[in-house]
Design a protein that fits this description.
By secondary structure, the protein is an all-alpha fold. Helices cover 68% and strands 0% of the residues.
């Protein structure tokens, strides 16, 4: 008997496909590569323009790290929200759904252990000497970062590329998510720090994309992303030299190990049997293709019209009956 799709419910499938897309959303749905590339370039242009406009203001007014980034991230989050609204993809990107089944909650256990638990264990040490305002602003900034980056990369980009295949969409959106962290080099961060970010961002992107697709909700990814970032933001505010002075070898080894565990968990979540189920849930073109025709050599032989009739029923064969029954025939 076929195993049911335990992670999904009929309600989740209905919500995914009951939405009416805008004209821009329909265009993006029919041109995955072009729309994903255009949206990514638009996002890069917005980020560069934001830095060009806010940079001199922050430098002139000597605005501290956290308030400056709060302003920039709030504008970035607004940009992402506007793009989702123009596309009509609030349901498609998973913002209108939470975790509605126990199976979906269970799917979050391993990502929580990998992404959130190490940060939560070290958070008391990080926040020990940090002012309350720094903790509060870091938490708010982490939530804005989670909303904006998950909304764009695991929301818009992943949904735009999904018609080309689940794994292709996951890998490309994760690679672009990692590459966008290269802009931190121009913001004054060290090469060692950015290299570690690239590894973590790629592995995190795969894990959160897999979680987003399996749960049909983006909210677990937003919360995990925020928890993952909050400790680093507090350290960048209180002791930035400590964060950026990590040796390159150590950054490669530690972040490489975390990246490998993230990818392993994402691979388990998107194993082949679940890929087939997700293709049906998200109505991907590969799931809607007709069944492959049976080759001629494998087709059952059809007897000619003049062939004698051969019964397929055992009670038409005299050997089927006992000797006593055969005497009465």
């Amino acid at each position: 008997m076929q195993e049911p799709v335990s992670s999904f419910s009929p309600t989740s499938i209905d919500l995914l496909h009951r939405q009416r897309f805008t004209r821009l959303g329909r265009w993006a749905e029919h041109h995955p590569y072009l729309s994903a590339g255009s949206l990514f370039l638009l996002q890069l242009a917005f980020m560069r323009g934001l830095g060009f406009v806010l940079g001199p203001v922050v430098h002139t007014l000597h605005i501290p790290f956290l308030p400056a980034n709060l302003l920039a991230e709030a504008l970035y989050a607004a940009f992402v929200a506007i793009m989702i609204s123009l596309l009509g993809w609030w349901t498609t990107t998973g913002f209108t759904r939470g975790l509605s089944t126990n199976q979906q909650v269970v799917l979050c256990i391993a990502p929580i252990a990998l992404l959130a638990l190490p940060v939560l264990c070290g958070l008391p040490t990080v926040t020990n000497k940090a002012p309350f305002t720094v903790i509060l602003m870091s938490t708010a900034l982490a939530l804005l970062v989670g909303f904006a980056e998950e909304g764009f990369f695991r929301g818009i980009l992943l949904s735009a590329l999904l018609p080309k295949g689940i794994w292709l969409a996951t890998l490309v959106s994760s690679l672009l998510f990692a590459c966008v962290h290269l802009v931190n080099l121009s913001a004054g961060f060290t090469l060692n720090y950015v290299v570690g970010q690239l590894l973590l961002a790629f592995g995190t992107g795969i894990l959160l994309a897999a979680l987003r697709l399996r749960t049909t909700s983006i909210w677990p990814g937003i919360l995990l992303h925020a928890i993952r970032d909050v400790g680093g933001l507090i350290l960048l505010s209180t002791n930035p030299k400590l964060v950026q002075s990590v040796p390159l070898t150590e950054a490669l080894i530690v972040n490489g190990v975390f990246c490998a565990f993230f990818i392993l968990n994402g691979t388990i979540l998107l194993r082949p049997r679940k890929i087939r189920e997700l293709s049906i849930v998200y109505q991907l073109p590969t799931a809607l293709q007709p069944a492959r025709p049976i080759p001629p050599e494998d087709q059952p032989a059809i007897p000619p019209d003049n062939a004698p009739f051969q019964s397929q029923f055992p009670y038409d064969d005299p050997a089927f009956y006992s000797p006593l029954d055969q005497d009465t025939l």
